[in-house]
Amino acid sequence: MDDIWASTDMDIASVKGRRALILLLVDWSLCPVDRLGFDPSIRYSPSWSSVNPYLEIDVYEVDENTSHARKRTYYSQRCVGAADRLTGRRARYFAASTDPKSMGEPAFLIKDVWSTSGSGSANDTRESSVLNILHSEFDGSSEFSDSFAQLVSAGPMGIKQGDALVEDTTTTAFAGLPSISQARQHRRTVTKLEGSLISEADDENQVIVAIADAMTTLIAAYSKCGILHGNISNRALLLQEAADGIKGVLADFDYASSAGDNVAETPESMLFQSILSLENSGVDR
Questions:
Q1: Rounded to 5 degrees, what are φ and ψ at 245?
Q2: What is the CA angle 81-160-254, rounded to 5?
Q3: Source organism's superkingdom (predicted)?
Q4: Residue ranges in the chain whose pLDDT is less than 50
């Protein structure tokens, strides 16, 4: 091995540390399902082994009057998408409701990510900032007022360390150990679920309509606000029921930027990149 990680709790360069590692692996293999992953903010329901199991998902919402985060619990029976690459955002998407009795008709989409983006504010993210700008610009426009995801809340996740609640980041998690990737922060964003993911479309016509609407919306966002989305993918396109049929709604603005900023490529969305971008990019694909 070229590198060995060690901590005061588990130094695998020692016999005691190696024994502790083996015990940890055994405990993982035998522990109850509701503890796998050990994220205390996402829990199986007390009756998780019943016919209709569900998840309890905590989200911290900032009270504008007090600037303090308050916890709200959502309930979900369905993860509608995930991107689990180790070096990515490890994004997960849950269709959820605020009442376990209405989980069959979820009203919210919870996005759980380990993101590098952010505006610097403890209770804000790049996505929430961008959505606020877009809605401020377009809410008076009948054509685009419902073309962007409706933000409910967004903010960092916290974990308990003793009696204190600290932000859940890779820096906190590694606690002095070398990180395997860029520093990231655990965040959750809640938007209204005004439709379904494009992967749940009934037919190809709905997909075509959703993509066409998204392209029109992208042009409007750029021309009016100078905003580039930066990460179009199947999880960024929602299908919404409209009076005259299906329309497309644009979501997932974690990588959005203002025109002129240095924009990092996101090659995981290759299916949605232009042919010109693919041909002239130095990124190996």
A1: 125, -145
A2: 35
A3: Eukaryota
A4: 1, 66, 117-124, 265, 267-268
